[in-house]
Write a structure and sequence with these properties.
mainly beta; 24 strands
Length: 308
């Protein structure tokens, strides 16, 4: 009996994996569909991480602080949208163990790995309050946190950086006691920011006149000016490397395709494209594993373009 049960369980697991891979293979070549992949920072060893059956969008991946789990969003809408749900899966079995935690986008972990911040967008099917929400990592105790989007905890867990439109697009530091604007300049759009590993600075991309400005700003909580690092056709939400030496971002190339790039924090040169991305037109939503050994990202590349 035990042998039969185990055989059936193994067969079901294999079938589930096969269906997931076949589903991903079917739609990953479509321009507006996307799965989640991982690779080394030099662009090698690209691997399919997860592509949920029945979803055309899998995006916004975020490693847990211990590197054992990944939170992401998935939807039947192009590039996520207001109907997206937050999922959490294990790194060692991403295609088998994805837990649906309910409505939400762009999840990120608390430094102790017990909670998630996530966005709820306007027009969502539950008519839930728009803004940043918080919940336990198992999906319990969902509650509204504050107005804004793309919340990110500081490394010590005492502050949250958000983007919001209180008086035009800007960056804010939020704690249980205050909400302070820290960016004095005006941009057309700002979509989130990422903390430096020491918690002293934030890196962000401000959009103005179809151009993006990659910049850093003090995270001390006082309103001030930013230090521009680079300007060009760049996307949103850069990611600071765990060692503090590089920033990961995406750049639009001459064809309009988005390519992941790395730029040295202390250098003067512009972003350097990570090799191996010319197989597709969309690479985005990238962030680092806690040890800096891998990058996890969203891409519309075909599954066969990942390494076996």
């Amino acid at each position: 009996m035990r042998t039969t049960a185990r055989s059936r369980a193994a067969a079901i697991t294999c079938l589930s994996l096969l269906m997931t891979l076949l589903c991903a293979h079917t739609w990953a070549v479509e321009p507006n569909n996307a799965a989640i992949f991982t690779m080394k920072p030099d662009g090698s060893d690209v691997r399919l991480f997860v592509a949920l059956p029945g979803k055309i969008w899998n995006g916004s991946p975020s490693y847990s602080p211990n590197g054992k789990r990944v939170a992401f969003d998935a939807s039947m809408q192009v590039k996520g949208g207001s109907a997206s749900h937050v999922f959490v899966t294990r790194v060692d079995s991403p295609l088998e163990m994805a837990d649906d935690l309910g409505l939400g986008n762009c999840p990120t972990w608390s430094p102790d790995g017990t909670k998630l911040l996530f966005d709820v967008q306007r027009g969502n099917p539950a008519n839930a309050k728009v803004g940043i929400w918080i919940m336990n990592a198992d999906g319990t105790d969902r509650r509204w946190f504050c107005a804004g989007e793309r919340g990110r905890w500081s490394p010590d867990g005492t502050r949250v950086a958000i983007s919001a439109r209180d008086d035009g697009p800007s960056l804010y530091i939020v704690t249980p006691r205050f909400r302070k604007r820290i960016l004095s300049e005006e941009f057309d759009h700002i979509i989130g920011a990422t903390w430096s590993p020491d918690g002293n600075q934030l890196v962000f991309i401000g959009q103005r006149d179809d151009q993006g400005v990659l910049a850093t700003i003090s995270a001390k909580g006082e309103e001030g000016s930013y230090a521009k690092r680079w300007e060009g056709r760049i996307g949103w939400h850069p990611s600071w490397s765990p060692d503090g030496k590089q920033i990961l971002l995406w750049v639009k190339d001459e064809t309009g395709a988005s390519r992941l790039n790395l730029i040295d924090v202390a250098g003067t040169e512009g972003p350097q494209e990570i090799p191996g991305q010319r197989v597709c037109s969309y690479n985005s939503d990238a962030t680092w594993s806690p040890d800096g050994a891998r990058i996890i990202f969203t891409s519309n590349r075909a599954v066969e373009d990942a390494n076996p």
